[in-house]
Amino acid sequence: MNRSRRRNHKLEPPPAWRARAMLGLFGVFAVMLGARAFELQVLDQEFLNEEGAKRHLRTMEVPAVRGAIRDRRGAPLALSAPTESVWAVPAALLEDPGRLSALASELDYSTAELRDRLENYRERQFLYLQRQLSPAHAQRVMAVGAPGVFLQREYRRYYPGGESTAQLVGLTDIDGRGQEGIELALDDELDGTPGSRRVIKDRVGRVVEDLAEFTPPDPGGDVRLTVDLRLQALAYRELKAAVLEHQASAGVALMADPETGEILAMVSFPSFNPNSRDSIPTGTLRHRAVTDTFEPGSTFKPLLISRALDAGAFTRDSVIDTEGGRFRVGRLTVRDFRDYGDVDLRRLLTKSSNVGAAKVGLKLGPERLWQVYNDYGFGSISGIRFPGERYGVLRNFARWDDVTTATAAYGYGVSVTALQLIRAYAALADDGRLRDLRLTLANQDDWQAAPRQVISADAAAKVRDLLGDVVSAEGTAGRAAVPGYRVVGKTGTVRKVEGAGYDAASHQSLFVGMAPADDPALVTLVMVDEPGSGDYYGGLVAAPAFSNIMREALRILRVPPDNPATLTADAAAEPESKS
Amino acid sequence: MTGRRAVLLTVLGGVALASSVAVIEAKHQSRELQSELQVLRVERDRLRTEWSQLQLEESAWANPDRVARMAREQLDMQVPRHFELIEAQP
């Protein structure tokens, strides 16, 4: 400012009354403030308490949607849809008893029940009245207009695949955490991160003001399975029909693409309805392909022969004397269904001769026989990362004597899972390359081990050729035939171990096969547990289900027929019935 | 001297006024956008709900068992079993 002008101006002292008046005024203000503070803090606490209760700063969770599980073509197998959960502040709701009965009837309570529940939890600020209602139902509840009643967004899991995918996809609990199956195995990928918002709420819980702080929820990622829902539903339908027809206790069906190790269908019966979780019968929750082990029985023979050919111990023209169908090894007598005389390897497989297999096994010796099992992946898990997968039992060859060796040669004394068995057959189908099985389409290459050549491509092709007569009127599985295709495969009929020994009345019927024979596009396994209606041979129980599944699957996947001549003929030849 | 001062004051006053009007304008806009965002969030929510319900509906209609049943019963279809082979014409 202008200094020269200020210097010229003469300053006069202010009048003394001004200072005194100001001081007096301050004094009055101080007394007023003090009095008001005293009144609020000491005399009238009510008021502040009430004002405080009218608004609280709260952090509200914004739920994140869980990722979907889809099949290889994108069809949903598990999907979260929004639902509304109704909750109340009990004290606030009890203030308006007039609306209780209307509210109770919308919520499927009786009026007395609702009142009791509210009285019991009167002190609480939050009480669920009904969880996971459809949005439309929730709107009807809110239309009652009862005080202190609110909605909270929650997600509910739906499983469109129903029974066919129940054990595979698994379940979540009501709070959306994975409990079983893929839901559990890939929980980290599926699970979202809830967001939050800061709000000011009033006494009965209404949001009065939404503050700007908002962290959006981070939804979970989708997971794509290798399974094809069409094939899954087909396999389930046929497996269920076979189990019911033969009054069996359970069953498993598996289908895989041998060139990639991808599982196309994986079903377990009995199953449950995953959309109504009130009643899940015991024993239906586990996926039997993963958790149940059995002895592979005759289905092991082609694997044995493949190694015998590869090692040069036998050629396709080798002839084995089956000793009239009775062959003593130490304290054990190996029996055939009947006397097959001298057999070559083709006839050994076609007729499923135990004596022939035992002789091949004894010639290979315990160590090389153990090696066959080990190389084909028995005793190690399949790679699909499914919860509860079993390793089976493969004891070390150092403890095998002649009896153990002979029985191991036709698939006894070793326990395997259905997954291990189909993986071994996929190797047979894919020119001897054993792959880890695969259940998810994502991150294909990062965790997958490279395929392992367990036998030469030549030996694998020879075995597929030698199996050519199994699915014929001559062999054990005429009923596995599929018109238009050359199917190769092997039956198995295994007596179940019950307590100390084998139970003569309790069996497992198996068929594992592939088509088209020269360059298989599909490998399929069917296992029926404890058929109870008389028939129990794999060729009679499992093979027809295999045929039905394969016929439809090859059509759905448009695999060109390799044997079109049989399309015109009536292919229903009567099979011989044995294993 | 005083002329320049007056001009300066007027200009500064004008700028201050303009700035305060702009603040009001921005506040107003922010409020409008906020409420628009809220409306859009609600809309997105509604569409997501509808989308998941439509997916569920589609998978219910497209259920393989249902399709097979309808093909058999309502459309009188069957899986072809016997074929006649014809030579492909060159």
UniProtKB/TrEMBL annotation, chain B:
Subcellular location: Cell inner membrane; Cell membrane
Keyword Ribonucleoprotein carried by entry: no
One example of a Gene Ontology biological process annotation: cell division
Keyword terms: Cell cycle, Cell division, Cell inner membrane, Cell membrane, Coiled coil, Membrane, Transmembrane, Transmembrane helix
Residue ranges the record marks as coiled coil: 23-57
Pfam families, A to Z: FtsL
Superkingdom of the source species: Bacteria
Topology in the lipid bilayer: Single-pass type II membrane protein
Family annotation (InterPro entries): Cell_div_FtsL (IPR011922)
Xref: HAMAP family: FtsL (MF_00910)
Entry function: Essential cell division protein. May link together the upstream cell division proteins, which are predominantly cytoplasmic, with the downstream cell division proteins, which are predominantly periplasmic.
Family statement drawn from the similarity comment of this UniProt entry: Belongs to the FtsL family.
NCBIfam families to which the protein is assigned, alphabetical: ftsL_broad
Binding partners and assembly: Part of a complex composed of FtsB, FtsL and FtsQ.
The protein's name: Cell division protein FtsL
Native species: Spectribacter acetivorans
UniProt lineage: Bacteria, Pseudomonadati, Pseudomonadota, Gammaproteobacteria, Salinisphaerales
